[in-house]
Give the backbone structure.
Amino acid sequence: MQRIASLPALSLVLCTLAATAQQPGHRPPHRIVDLTHPFNQRTVYWPTETGFQLLRGNNGVTEKGYYYAANRFAAAEHGGTHVDAPIHFYANRQTVAQIPLQRLVGEAVVVDVSKACAKDRDYQIGVGDLRRWEEQHERQLVDVIVLLYTGHGRHWPNRERYLGTAETGPEAVAKLHFPGLAPEAAKWLVEHRSIKSIGIDTPSIDYGQSQQFNSHVTLFQHNVPAFENVANLHLLPTAGATVVALPMKIGEGSGAPLRIIAMLSE
Ligand SMILES: [Zn+2]
């Protein structure tokens, strides 16, 4: 008799535990998408940079009998999936550690320009492309993280296809070919809209053939950080995902490796 009587009591305890674990109103994400490329020997860096270096320690079983692994790494700030801090192209602007967290977390909108970029690898995303998203969604690009989906990420980590050249060194920079944000569109975003930050699935927010990097300059003058080499944008809806983009907090960094994820509610 006593065993039977205790069963409802036990399930009540379990219900209480479950209620404690998940507060009313808290909805865990349905799915989490990793928008980050891994850092390893194949990670794509600018032609003038050496790649990611993992300097292995003495990994293995120690004299005392326990297993121990610890390495060192060396890398340029700007390479792989990373953030450009405003100071990267504008004096007296925020370093990585000074970027407000509000700019790194928020709703992501995905502007799909993959068709145009498939035809033209030097395509520059214009005001028209941004306005098209606004018309389709009947809202303005305000208080959002804008992610530019060029489709170029499918070439990662093939340097020849992703950068336009597998060559390295200063001469290779002139041979870079990949899409980017047009300087006029950057100007329009900072003057007529108010976005948290911007990201792209190419090596740079300016297109590969850029000489003056004017999109960088305009965005950073207004303290809008840029995420570059963002992965997996084809897995996101055009609106509604929550992005969390947390760089390594390098105090005086002009950029930093970035772990960026998107949380989807359905
Ligand atoms: Zn950068």
